TrEMBL record, chain A:
Family as reported in the entry's similarity comment: Belongs to the iron-sulfur cluster assembly SufBD family.
InterPro entries hit by this protein: Fe-S_cluster_assembly_SufBD, SUF_FeS_clus_asmbl_SufBD_core, SUF_FeS_clus_asmbl_SufBD_sf, SUF_FeS_clus_asmbl_SufD, SufBD_N
SUPFAM superfamilies for the chain: Stabilizer of iron transporter SufD
Domain of life: Bacteria
TM annotation in the entry: none
SUF system FeS cluster assembly SufBD core domain boundaries: 177-408
Source organism of this protein record: Puia dinghuensis
SUF system FeS cluster assembly SufBD N-terminal domain segment(s): 6-169
Coiled coil start-end: none
Organism lineage: Bacteria, Pseudomonadati, Bacteroidota, Chitinophagia, Chitinophagales
Annotated GO biological process: iron-sulfur cluster assembly
Protein name: Fe-S cluster assembly protein SufD
UniProtKB/TrEMBL annotation, chain B:
Pfam families: SUFBD_core (PF01458), SufBD_N (PF19295)
Family per record: Belongs to the iron-sulfur cluster assembly SufBD family.
PANTHER family per UniProt: FES CLUSTER ASSEMBLY PROTEIN SUF, UPF0051 PROTEIN ABCI8, CHLOROPLASTIC-RELATED
InterPro entries (alphabetical): Fe-S_cluster_assembly_SufBD, SUF_FeS_clus_asmbl_SufB, SUF_FeS_clus_asmbl_SufBD_core, SUF_FeS_clus_asmbl_SufBD_sf, SufBD_N
SUPFAM superfamilies noted in UniProt: Stabilizer of iron transporter SufD
Domain SUF system FeS cluster assembly SufBD core: 210-451
Species lineage: Bacteria, Pseudomonadati, Bacteroidota, Chitinophagia, Chitinophagales
Protein name: Fe-S cluster assembly protein SufB
Domain named SUF system FeS cluster assembly SufBD N-terminal: residues: 137-202
Biological processes, Gene Ontology terms: iron-sulfur cluster assembly
Gene name of the encoded protein: sufB
Length: 439, 481
């Protein structure tokens, strides 16, 4: 047992208890068991774990969390939260998950042929294990999730099917008491199929209530398939969000990820892993984190080049306001076989808050020789020249700074292919840089 | 004699140009490490009580620490009890002139291309030759003395200037810093000591050639350089070591202290025995090097050319405490066969308006693994701090690896940090271009490498730069095709 487990025995004890009470099918039994053993071995991460060096979660783990979500039934503030997550003028299919459970309703018309959506809990009652086996490596929370998950969303797009309208998934987290939830999702885009998913994460918590979301999403993009994945994290204060996304890319597939984290949640930790398991794949990872207050936002990405002729490009930008902390750790791993790899990675940070902190760690591990890999990382402030230019044209300092922040974020926001989402994001950014921040 | 055969074999195979064993009677302590070993070393060197106490503190720290596990290569297990911690040439007296020095020892230096006897004639370079653990000859000492510069072996400094040593030793690299620094603190044998008085500009490059000679003797030197206010010194460190079958541990510590307006330039060419083609033998080079810019406007610059050793593990760092102080790090690291180099720097920005510049060039050939691991840390009070980092890796052959692990930590909203890194294969079109002009591939690669490393080599003092350039070409011989 590590130190942290000793410190947080109530939670740890509850986890063991919950695990022992889980009723589960034989097929998933073994996977759960090995995941649970993995978690027992890893424990909760501390700053002594290299991957959590800059992200100290001890203070968040000190709160007590129940592991059972309140029984179903729409919470009173649901419509308010949905309004917050709504993206104006977006033509999409919309579904809502409350604390990781889908009510089975779909907005925006009937789903076209070739796409199926299920609750993971329904799929679980089927024989055979739904999920692929994974040993979870050093993913502490993924191992915990894989041991304890009870529900989530299963999506499958059949071969050769192109879903034109994006699917907007709104994750609502709400509770009257401190709660830890473990939703687990599996999305499969079959051969030559195409899908766009937009996820919004919102939370409504009253008073001192805390919610810990330990989300695990597995994605398989099959041969020649394509997935656009937008992630909008706008959860409220009191939310601790750990979001793990593991993408398995097959031959000639394309995966685009856009992750936006906005002020609100106390802790956001994103672990995004793109595993390029077959050759000729293409991967784009874009991220923008705008942090404020005492927020701690940590983006960990791994692009795992296992096979030759793959291309990956990564751009993460951060704007750090007030006393917030940003962490970026981007790893590009090129295996011995992965010749002709092209991998690019960039992380730029604009530090505005006087007490703001940024820790950036771009990593390259390369074991093949015929590759082109590069990364860059910068930490800086407003360009004095740019500010002067704007002010010389009669634009006030605060407005000029807000304008520059928007321009800084533009490199990432412009990459989104849905104009309605881009407009929504830009509004959110502007909303969070009120004039008094820029100082 | 086996040794002679070995020498002949070496020459025939030309695997390692500077590999040979000198036959000089050695005074060797039996292998093993405990408090008595430390007391023995301390007594042998007639050290004052405070130093013995400090050594013992280092030993306590060493016992508490574990070998690191964060590296991305397998660290061979090291049996610290199988190493002998003291070896000294059996010298009966101190030498006043070169004539008194053991002729065989002088011949060793000659083979290395450091003809000590000619050094006097060659203006500008004073050599403090460390043969295994004890300094045997120090030249130009008198001349430096006139300026008030102290340049001597560490042991001598302990005897003659204990107050300076006591004040600064362990002030930059504490005795408990890391396991190898702790080991060094406990058992360090000798090393160099430099003190440049206020306002003095050292007129010549100070240089020390270290050599590991005795089988199974780890060398644990300790270097301490203090540049008082407004002074300047350039220090060269170069190394070669004889052929060995068993791995040898080298855990040195270098501490630099630059007071206000002072500047220290520290250059290293490291070419220890890297092991054979299968990675057998070779030196483990685990060095802790750190400097502190204590006063305002101070400057510390590290330049290193790393071509040797089976495993190189070092991060020459600068603590930028004084306002407006500057830290620089220029590095070329070459790995081939099964060599591993894990090197980089740490720049701790504490004072206002401090700046640092990092240029790192890695070259991996054969099955060599090369890592840049660096930290740029901007403290909350380091207003207007500035850093620029560039690390490039060049890959030759499909079995090698190049890795970059930069850490950037900023707690200041007026700081600017830039980091960029690239990794790519050696340019085929560049080789083709040179081939076309009648230059064979081997020479072409040497040319490309020298161009690639130029930014760093330019930082070296002239005579060193020539040597380093030659070394790069020799190291990469036969790695193409």
């Amino acid at each position: 047992m590590n130190v942290l487990q000793e410190q947080t025995i109530p939670l740890y004890g509850r986890i063991v208890e919950k695990y022992s009470k889980l009723s589960t099918t034989a097929a998933s039994q073994q996977a759960r068991q090995s995941a649970f053993h993995r978690f027992q071995l890893l424990g909760f991460p501390t700053i002594k774990n290299e991957d959590w060096k800059y992200t100290n979660i001890t203070r968040f783990l000190k709160d007590e969390y129940a592991l059972e979500a309140p029984s179903a039934g729409a919470p009173a503030e649901l419509s308010e939260l949905l309004a917050k997550a709504a993206i104006p003028d977006l033509d999409c299919y919309g579904i809502v998950l409350v604390n990781g459970v889908w009510d089975g309703k779909i907005e925006g018309g009937e789903l076209p042929k070739g796409i199926e959506l299920h609750r993971v809990s329904d799929a679980l009652s089927q024989p055979g294990d739904l999920f692929t086996n994974d040993n979870w490596g050093n993913l502490h929370f993924a191992a915990l999730n894989a041991a304890l998950y009870t529900d989530g969303l299963f999506i499958r797009v059949a071969a050769n099917i192109v879903i034109e309208k994006p699917l907007h998934i709104v994750h609502v987290y709400t509770s009257d008491y401190n709660l830890m939830v473990q939703p687990r999702h599996l999305w499969i885009v079959d051969r030559n199929a195409q899908l766009s998913v937009i996820e919004s994460t919102v939370s409504g918590l009253s008073g001192e209530v805390k919610i810990w979301v330990n989300n695990l999403t597995e994605i398989i993009v099959h041969n020649d398939a394509k997935l656009d994945h937008v992630n909008l994290q706008t959860a409220a204060t009191g939310t601790r969000l750990v979001q793990q996304t593991i993408v398995h890319q097959k031959k000639q597939s394309l995966y685009n990820s856009y992750t936006f984290t906005l002020p609100g949640a106390d802790l956001v930790r994103n672990d995004l892993q793109a595993r390029l398991e077959e050759d000729h794949t293409e991967t784009h990872l874009y991220g923008l984190y705008l942090t404020a207050g005492d927020q701690l936002v940590d983006n960990h990405t791994l692009v795992d080049h296992q096979k030759p002729h793959c291309f990956s490009n990564e751009l993460y930008k951060g704007v750090l306001l007030e006393r917030s902390t940003g962490v970026f750790n981007g790893k590009v791993y090129v295996h011995k076989d992965a010749q002709k790899t092209n991998a690019f990675q960039q992380n730029n940070n604009l530090v505005i808050g006087k007490k703001a902190t940024i820790d950036s760690k771009p990593e390259l591990e390369i074991f093949a020789d015929d590759v082109k890999c590069s990364h860059g990382s910068t930490v800086g402030q407003f360009s004095e020249d740019a500010l002067f230019y704007l002010r010389a044209r009669g634009i006030g300092e605060a407005t000029a700074k807000a304008l520059l922040i928007n321009a800084f974020a533009f490199d990432v926001t412009e990459k989104i292919k849905f104009p309605a989402v881009e407009t929504y994001i830009n509004q959110q950014i502007s909303h969070h840089i009120p004039v008094n921040h820029a100082g | 004699m086996a040794n002679e055969n070995e020498i002949l074999d070496n020459i025939a195979n030309k695997e390692y140009e500077f590999g040979f064993v000198t036959d000089i009677e050695m005074d060797i302590l039996p292998a093993g490490l405990n408090e008595d070993t430390i007391r023995y070393i301390s007594e042998k060197k007639k050290e004052p009580a405070w130093l013995l106490e400090w050594r013992l503190k280092g030993f306590q720290a060493f016992r508490k620490q574990k070998l690191p596990e964060w590296q991305n290569f397998t660290l061979p297990s090291i049996d610290f009890q199988k190493i002998s911690y003291y070896a000294a040439p059996r010298s009966k007296k101190k030498y006043n002139s070169l004539d008194e020095v053991d002729p065989e020892l002088l011949a060793t230096f000659e083979k290395l291309g450091i003809p000590l006897s000619e050094q006097k004639a060659l203006a500008g370079v004073a050599v403090d030759a460390v043969f295994d653990s004890i300094s045997v000859a120090t030249t130009y000492k008198e001349k430096l003395k006139e300026l008030g510069i102290i340049f001597c072996s560490f042991g001598e400094a302990v005897q003659e200037h204990p107050e300076i040593v006591q004040k600064y030793v362990g002030s930059v690299v504490p005795h408990s810093d890391n396991i190898f620094a702790a080991l060094n603190a406990a058992v360090f044998s000798d090393g160099s000591f430099v003190y440049i008085p206020k306002g003095v500009r050292c007129p010549m490059e100070l240089s020390t050639y270290f050599r590991i000679n005795t089988e199974n003797t780890g060398q644990f030197e300790r270097t301490l350089i203090i540049a008082d206010e407004g002074s300047y010194v350039s220090y060269l460190e170069g190394c070669t070591a004889p052929m060995r079958d068993e791995n040898q541990l080298h855990a040195a510590v270098v501490e630099l202290i630059a007071l206000g307006n002072a500047e220290i330039k520290y250059s290293t060419v490291q070419n220890w025995y890297p092991g054979d083609k299968d990675g057998k033998g070779g030196i483990y080079n685990f060095v802790t090097k750190r400097g502190i810019c204590k006063g305002a406007n101070a400057k510390i610059s590290w330049t290193q050319v790393e071509t040797g050793s089976a495993i190189t593990w070092k991060y020459p760092s600068v603590i930028l405490q004084g306002d407006n102080s500057t830290g620089e790090f220029y590095s070329v690291a070459v790995t081939r066969n099964k060599q591993i180099a894990d090197t980089g720097t740490k720049m701790h920005h504490i004072g206002r308006n401090t700046r640092s510049r990092i240029i790192s060039k890695g070259i991996s050939a054969g099955q060599g693994q090369n890592s840049y691991r660096g930290l740029v840390q901007i403290g909350a009070k380091a207003d207007e701090a500035r850093n620029f980092t560039q690390c490039d890796s060049l890959l030759i052959g499909d079995q090698c690896g190049a890795h970059t692990f930069p850490y950037i930590e900023s707690k200041n909203n007026t700081a600017t940090v830039e980091h960029e890194a690239t990794t790519s294969k050696i340019g085929e079109d560049q080789i083709f271009y040179l081939n076309q002009r009648g230059i064979d591939s081997e020479k072409a690669i040497a040319l490309i490498i020298n161009g690639y490393a130029r930014e760093v080599l330019n930082q070296l003092p002239m005579e060193f730069a020539v040597e380093a350039q030659k070394l790069l070409s020799i190291t990469l011989e036969g790695s193409v095709g």
